[in-house]
Amino acid sequence: MPHINFEVDEEQYESLKETKKRHGLTWKGMLLHAQRELDSDNGD
């Protein structure tokens, strides 16, 4: 199974972690949710 790894600074990490926690997502779930939002037809 492929892996995705990237680095973020501490402030970005804390912000992402809080968003993940607030929405009850896993890291994978948050990434997939972002993909769906970006790919959705929102009139752009």
UniProtKB/TrEMBL annotation:
Source species, domain of life: Archaea
Protein name in UniProt: Uncharacterized protein
Organism of origin: Halobacterium hubeiense
